[in-house]
Write a structure and sequence with these properties.
Hemagglutinin Ectodomain, Chain B, Nucleotide Exchange Factor Grpe, Chain A, domain 2, 4 helices
Amino acid sequence: MPSEEQKSKPVDTPADPEPEVGDDSSDEGERPSGDNGSPEPDELQTRMLTRIAELEDALAERDRRLREYIAAHQHAVEEMDAARKRMERDRCEEVDRDRSALAGSVLGVLDDLDRSIEGAGSTGNIAALLEGVSLVRNRMMSSLHELGVEPMTSLGERFDPNFHEAVGMIPVPEAEQDQRIIAEEQSGFLFKGKLLRAARVIVGTHTGS
């Protein structure tokens, strides 16, 4: 049986073994490549250069596409300008053809008028002159008809400011004649159904007295 002195004596516990110097092989593979896990400077530089190259390639591609768009736009503008000039040239040629055709028809009428005047002057026959002038007028009206020009019928029609120009007014006894055309000083003409020249007319007015 142990004595009181043996009971009070503390029991010695073995101390932890001290690590051997240089024995850090277990942590070497898990150590990060840089401070706080950041990549090494060479690796960071490589990444930056790669990114710069990618951005330069993307910028070059956008520049190429922009140049293509500009070239396509310029080509379209040139084509539109050429088409406009071609249409303008065609229009001018068409107008010239119409003028030439009109001049040709007028020249024929002028020839007939010259022959009528020459014949009346040599014979002194006024009746022949009147007949010749009437023939010339008929030919002129035929030429105008071929061009799409038609005379308007105004006498007896109700006055219409869209087609008639009133140059005077005279009183009329009948109410039915009010605002109707009584006389025509100058004939009006239509070109393909549209007003070419308004008729100069005298309009009747009924006072009611």
